Amino acid sequence: xxxxxxxxxxxxxxxxxxxxxxxxxxxxxxxxxxxxxxxxxxxxxxxxxxxxxxxxxxxxxxxxxxxxxxxxxxxxxxxxxxxxxxxxxxxxxxxxxxxxxxxxxxxxxxxxxxxxxxxxxxxxxxxxxxxxxxxxxxxxxxxxxxxxxxxxxxxxxxxxxxxxxxxxxxxxxxxxxxxxxxxxxxxxxxxxxxxxxxxxxxxxxxxxxxxxxxxxxxxxxxxxxxxxxxxxxxxxxxxxxxxxxxxxxxxxxx
Length: 254
Prior knowledge:
The protein is an alpha+beta fold. The chain has helices at residues 2-34, 46-50, 210-218; strands at residues 53-55, 65-67, 77-80, 83-86, 98-100, 107-115, 120-127, 141-146, 181-189, 192-197, 200-206, 234-237, 244-253. Strands 1, 3, 4, 6, 9, 10, 11 and 13 form an 8-stranded antiparallel sheet that branches. A 5-stranded antiparallel sheet has the order 2-5-12-7-8, with no helix packed on it. The longest helix is centred in the N-terminal third of the chain and has 33 residues, at 2-34. It is globular and about 45 Å long. The chain starts with a helix and ends with a strand. Mean pLDDT is 90; it is low at 12-19.
């Protein structure tokens, strides 16, 4: 009798696990189906509007964006041929990233990026703005954007393109060569985070899980006590002193 109960319980757990996996996969497919990658850049289709997507970059100026802890956007950012471009050079980390005016909690973000040789940037989310912080990454998690193939130094697996920086390495590496546009889909659904690069899931994790806490406390973020502390925040595009482009920035609040 006990064996039958145990087997039944194990079967139920297996079904629940498969159901959760299939439900998450179906959810990702649904969000991807909303987007028309062949539509004109920096515009919303009627289908996207109907499904509640907003346009965060109009392709003409930096309306809706500003410097971190600043009133205006820094002059090292410009709009060129319908894309946001980072103009600074040298690869040095700077406090000249830009953030959205608005804060977001649970959302789906779609954004495209293009790298030049040896370029480095990042898409940082759940960022808290406060004068006591110098950089957005002190509080927010980062979708790593980098030309790791041409980076001058050896990198850890959690530093390559598509990683959740200093936390989770990408499961697969579907990044495109420099000079080509890559598509990011970032899903933040309460504590569940899913990162896609060019239609492939590269990172999945549960914020505040035992695994997340262990990674957060044992690595780089041990020196940043407020990393991951906030569940609502700005979205930031990082300036790391290299030439990077962003466009087609769309967001759906959940």
